[in-house]
Amino acid sequence: MRTQVGIVGAGPAGLMLSHMLHLEGIESVIIERASREHVQSRLRAGVLEHGTVDMLKELGLGERISTLGLEQHAIDFRFGGESHRLDFHQATNGRRTWVYPQHEVVTDLMKARMQAGAQILFETSVTRIEGLQTRKPTIHFEQGGEPRELQCDFIVGCDGFRGVCRDAIPDSVLKIYDRVYPFGWLGILAEAPAPTNEITWGCHEDGFAMLSIRSPSVTRLYLQCEPNEDADRWSDGRIWAELHKRLDVPGMPPVNEGKITQKGVTAMRSFLAEPMQYGRLFLAGDAAHIVPPTGAKGLNSSMADVKVLGRGLVEQYKRGVADILDRYSQICLKRMWLVQRFSAGLCTMVHQIPGDNAFVRRLQRADLDYMTGTVAGRLAFSENFTGLPIEI
Ligand code: RFL
């Protein structure tokens, strides 16, 4: 088999890149380990940045977002027993975010790709990639128990944090930056209307909590917990009691209880691999970086990478100009370190960190006061949360 761009992974990054290339007449093949149903039903991210939504709309994928997406203008930070509403729409002169679940983004992308006759090999595992410093890099995979090969001009690793592509970059070249946080999130989906349309963050002395509307009848809720917490130790009663304690404040509608339909624990990690390219291999999305979910940057960062890479590949194929491709890692890393800074900073500001003393806790409180109570603090949060520009 042969193609122009071989893509490993049909998550949001892989599907979006394949879609962008198709619109410019560039051929790609995606190889995906999981089934199509599995890929489309994975419940993950929910907040889309301004730039991500613009990108989806520009590429003809905006129809369902326009009707199902819930536009967000503010976050309600709750601490000290009070509500502190941070209006990022106002602070940035009109920038906003959308609540539109990741599985809906994937569904839109999958539909567009399938309608265009995309070549996606599902339930097919890539075992290794090689020849990255040659003009004919190769993807090795297994199909029906048989070893096969796909020869490409370029390989793009969109295979997530636990994929195989990053490992193909020699240890002497690859530098890893990693931080694992000493807490996790117990996440639930509940059949209950959210008490407000706005995302609510509870920064409580017993731990962080978050509430986000998913649809008029479904709420997504998170509670800070131990990093390796057993979700079964949390009865429904215990979950609702903690959510009320950490999120409810006088004068605001309390958390609405309902049937819990999904429950799971997410670990918190900051991770970055440098460089994001090696010879004819490019890494995009979670394959290159992970952020704690506090800043809602994971999916959005995957889209930002793909925007740069898509443009670089188009320049290369259409005009023979390699400038963007050559600088891909440099362009993405500059923005990604700013995203890491924001996500890690927010993560340590709002969680209770085991072992921290009273002084650190008062500093956390001062950070929250500054962020919500000053013009500069509100603006800094707002421009980061709604999405930093991509300088190509
Ligand atoms: P993905 O989605 O992990 O897709 C990688 C794909 O590669 C496939 N694969 C392979 N295929 C073939 N051969 C192999 N050897 C393979 N190895 C792996 C996998 O099956 C998979 O289909 O990476 P991508 O495309 O970079 O997308 C990244 C996003 O999924 C991720 O960043 C977000 O979900 C993170 N995230 C959030 N991001 C946001 O922007 N906003 C949020 O509000 C937000 N909330 C979250 C999140 C992630 C969470 N979890 C579960 C990690 C909330 C949670 C709980």
TrEMBL record:
GO terms for molecular function: FAD binding; monooxygenase activity. The keyword NAD applies. Residues 2-342 form the FAD-binding domain. Pfam families: FAD_binding_3. Keywords: Monooxygenase, NAD, Oxidoreductase. PANTHER family: 3-(3-HYDROXY-PHENYL)PROPIONATE/3-HYDROXYCINNAMIC ACID HYDROXYLASE, BLR0106 PROTEIN. NCBIfam families: PRK08243.1. This is 4-hydroxybenzoate 3-monooxygenase. It comes from Rhodoferax sediminis. The lineage of its organism: Bacteria, Pseudomonadati, Pseudomonadota, Betaproteobacteria, Burkholderiales.
